[in-house]
């Protein structure tokens, strides 16, 4: 078991101990580095705690963040189409909430890059239009395909639709788009090359949770439209 894993378990165990006491003046519980199975743990001194290596971000993390900014930028292109084309009373509000959440996540992704001195890709409207002109909308900066991204033909079809046809197509495309973002998070966290840095891990988990909630909302609205 790795030191990071042992320390995590130890911190969790320490939290349980802390929660069991009502004495606000009590000394904080010790952090224990768990030993191998069958052996007792070893309390860590303040110096040992300070010396523990923390997981650092990797090139895979940077590529993930760059790709997710591009991915979210295309979602904003899609939500911008709703107001003039929808035939639904509910979809505009959903699209507005989605627009806010995507912009918030882009801001968090950009901040993560800025705090580490990494290049920040363009997430403006012009950048999002790459999905409409050429194949850049389907790929990240490293040329790798990003799941869920719409092709030129997909976006052209969405732009040409109105009313109920638009609503159904928008929901189908955006569900696929969000599922692609969830897959990107899963691949990052399971690939072994990234997702270990604490801040990036929490950010990826936030995106996964947010996108999953929106997928459920969209599926519910799509079912309502189909039943009407």
UniProtKB/TrEMBL annotation:
Bias type Basic and acidic residues, positions: 118-142
Alphabetized PROSITE patterns for the sequence: PROKAR_LIPOPROTEIN
Signal peptide coordinates: none
Disordered as annotated region, ranges: 118-150
Domain DUF305 span(s) in chain numbering: 61-222
InterPro entries in UniProt: DUF305_CopM-like, Ferritin-like
Top-level taxon in the UniProt lineage: Bacteria
Pfam families, A to Z: DUF305 (PF03713)
PANTHER family reported in the protein's UniProt record: SLL0788 PROTEIN
Protein name as it appears in the record: Uncharacterized protein (DUF305 family)
Originating species: Jiangella mangrovi
